[in-house]
Amino acid sequence: MSFCEKIRNLKNKMGMTSRELSQKSGIPLGTLNKLLSSVVEDPKLSVALSLCGALGVSLGTLLGEDVVSLSADEQKLLSDYRNSDTYGKAAVRSLAEMESGRTADSAGVSAERAAVLPQDTAAVPMITLPLYYLPVSAGLGEMLDNSDKETIDVRADACSEHADFALRVSGDSMEPRFHSGDIVLVHQQPTVNFGELGIFIANGEGYFKRYMGDRLHSLNPNYPDIPLCRFDDFLCCGKVVGHLRKKVAS
Asked: Which residue of 102, 162, 169, 196 is 20 to 30 Å from 237, comparing CA positions?
């Protein structure tokens, strides 16, 4: 039985609607519906853990016998996760995904990062994206009302193919994962989910931050969160789906 079939069966046995399972697990209803309809067959570990907590089953029950046995620390983490409320579960998923990305970056194999191609690799599929000249702030905010831009060629992959445009990071508030001069790849959309990285315009200034519901969060602990209540106008421009490292002169 597939993962999706197990989810459907458990949900039905518990007499739970899709909306109820979405609310209890903290997984967006759209994402859950894709799982239940088998559009997505291999969910992220964070999604699987959320469903474990909501359905009251072990990870092995959902994913099958090939799952490696959990260590004592992992079992304790899963137990703590199950006992958290929706806000806590979202925070745990956010931190887990952030740390996973940081670890992958340090190993040079970030699945979230696209690579700029050298001129002699024309045979490799490329995507051309607009890169806006004016940097989006990873610090105190920069105006995003300048439409001047150029184009860049990036390697075609799951991240770049999902991007609509690119922006250059300015400032250090998203370090150690993102640095000033890096380029972020953005999928244009009107909202992002709790804990996701996005591009926002607040009172006419552009920000690259993690969305935390009622505030914007910086990855650099030296920067305080920015409460959304201080803004009269707030707009989401899109979700950050990848980034390009700034080239370091040799």
From this structure: 102
Q: What is the pLDDT of residues 7-23, one digit of tens each?
A: 778 888 888 888 888 88
Q: Locate the DSSP E strands across the chain.
A: 126-137, 142-143, 149-155, 165-170, 183-188, 197-202, 205-211, 215-217, 226-227, 234-244
Contact between 103 and 71 under an 8 Å Cβ cutoff? The reply is no
Query: What length does the chain have?
Result: 250
Final residue belonging to a domain, choices 58, 83, 108: 83
Structure tokens at 20: 């109820």
From 31, 48, 83, the end of a domain falls on 83
137 beta partners: 170, 207
CATH number assigned to the domain comprising residue 68: 1.10.260.40
Residue 114 lies in a domain: no
- The residue segments making up the domain with residue 16 are 3-83
Q: Which residue is associated with the tokens 């949900």? A: 11
Q: For the segment 62-84, what is each residue's pLDDT rounded down to a tens digit? A: 665 444 445 677 767 777 777 77
Q: Is 163 contained in some domain? A: yes
